[in-house]
Amino acid sequence: MLNFCSNHSCLNEEKIPFSISRVLLEQHQNHFIQEHDYVELVYIVRGDARYIGEGNCCDIHTHDIIIFNSGENHYYEVRQDEPLEMIQCRFNSDFIHESLLRQLGITALMDDSHSYILPDKGGHCCNRLNLKNQDNIRAVSLLNGIQLEWRFKQANHHALIKILVLKLLVLISRYKSQNSSCQPELKSIRNSRSRILTRRVNGFLESHYAEKLSISAISELFNISTRQMNRIFKKETGLTLTERVHEIRIKRAKQYLVESDEKVIQIAILVGYEDPTFFSNLFRRQVGCPPGKFRKVHQEMAEKHISIS
């Protein structure tokens, strides 16, 4: 049995790029997460399974921490003898900005492409650690605290959740640094450097879409020529880098139009366009209607849904 999770249902209905939930996968039940645009941190409460994704597979066990970056597909094969219980903590890449992590010196968790990474000594990217003893107790305590804040939603719970998530990332970073010689059980089933590069570039674009971006600067960041970058990215995604940036920005603009009362001109600036006319024309070409009409249609749909309820 396959369980599918869409982007809209995975994140919460509040206007905060975060959610946390406890999931139980029964025996003979497989779980597939579609490609998403958020970071997912998974803690295995109990059980064993096999994780498959991004060209790698490895066994996962009780007390494992796994991090999935934006754009990563992943699939669980649950063991026959017991269910798999896990805590899924999901947040957008800008929930805790990478500049804050670097400012605090939490660099062990990130590579040069601003993706979360837990490689073994050989450079494999299983993104998995097994927590031991006091480190595991501290991680569980932080996760429990996050769940309580998320459940009861008392005053300033958003700020406390962000602090607790940051503390959890610090703990994981420290544990990874102290145990860097530990090699996770990993068997490579496919080695696609082009796909890994594309995933990392996508992760960077998701985090920096509102900034002024140039193909040459992005190529230099990833230590690759502009020509190679264009060729690889186009081959893997069917889009040029510029087209992908526009796609991300328009997607974010649609979220602002539906979830906020910001004026169209302000939304254009928020997603990276200095010229509101260019933004409106691009939005019309990609979506099929101007931003104002898009907002109006969704407002009418929401009002109709409320009246029916």
Automatic annotation (TrEMBL):
Keyword Metal-binding found:
no
UniProt protein name: AraC family transcriptional regulator
Against InterPro entries, the record matches this protein to: AraC-bd, Homeodomain-like_sf, HTH-like, HTH_AraC, HTH_AraC-typ_CS, RmlC-like_jellyroll, Tscrpt_reg_AraC-type_HTH
Annotated ranges, domain HTH araC/xylS-type:
199-297
Q: What is the lineage of its organism?
A: Bacteria, Bacillati, Bacillota, Bacilli, Bacillales
For this UniProt record, give its keywords in alphabetical order, as a comma-separated list.
DNA-binding, Transcription, Transcription regulation
Claim: Disulfide bond is one of the keywords in the record? no
Cross-referenced Gene3D superfamilies, in alphabetical order?
Homeodomain-like, Jelly Rolls
A molecular function GO annotation: sequence-specific DNA binding
